[in-house]
Amino acid sequence: xxxxxxxxxxxxxxxxxxxxxxxxxxxxxxxxxxxxxxxxxxxxxxxxxxxxxxxxxxxxxxxxxxxxxxxxxxxxxxxxxxxxxxxxxxxxxxxxxxxxxxxxxxxxxxxxxxxxxxx
Length: 119
Prior knowledge:
Layout: H1 2-19, H2 36-41, E1 57-59, E2 64-67, E3 70-75, E4 78-81, E5 97-104, E6 107-114
Antiparallel strand pairs: 1-5, 2-3, 3-4, 5-6
Keywords: Signal
Signal peptide: 1-24
């Protein structure tokens, strides 16, 4: 009986760990970056903060494109239209394309998007 209780406790603990959400956050590895303040100041046209470099995802040129003045990105194998009000239009100081996604019910949505040079 004690062994059964121990197993149930271990299974419950494992399930709690598996189900715990993982929030995006800066773990400190970019604390000394000269661009840290700039990244933290970025906002989309809609006014929402993009957060930090640590929250963004750098994209390869094959994972984003533009057509008729609108962007789209490929995240987790799926092409997603980038809403116009999430595009950052100030000069890109890092040169690489960055997208700041967030997920609702497993579906990727775009918080901010900064196009790169596409070279």
